[in-house]
Amino acid sequence: SLAASDRGGRVVLFYRSGNDSTFIPYAQFQAHDAEFDFLRSLKIEASIKQVKFLNNLYRTTLLTASSNKIKLFKVVEKCAYKASAGEQNVISKKDLVLPQKEVQNSSVSAMISGVYEGAHDYNINSMGVCSDAEHILSADDLRINLWNLERKGMAMQLLDIKPEETANLSELITCANFFPKANHMFFFGSSKGFVRMC
Fold this sequence. Notes:
By secondary structure, the protein is mostly beta strands.
């Protein structure tokens, strides 16, 4: 599967057609909507910064990150079946004749499984998925937080590079991610061009 997002908060899912490199869209859903922050008198766009699949076998769970929140979606395919009447689709066992079922139509829907918000003062610029599929990182310009997918309202701050005085600010976090197979290690990039391991 492949997922793409746009500035309107939509996610489109694709599947690979046969053995070639052609991807065909098969589902679309609205992941984020525009909001208004009344405390800051600020309009928050629906634009999605990143989409990532969780590391599971069927690629049915994905995360989307907007500028202020992360959402966890479970993608479900619903099929409606009908009994076929054709002779070629009938299974016969002695005197018992069973019709085969055929897919009449199928639809794909995405259900929200969790919302992770309130731990960032600045816009989220990246997120990373841990190899254990239980934890995620979220990074803004000055902080990196660790989330457990089971505990939606709580994040642990892993890194804070904000100086005491804003005038002394000389570096920003540009991206953060876990190492692919080491769930106790992560790295982040900075505006100075450094990549640091933690």
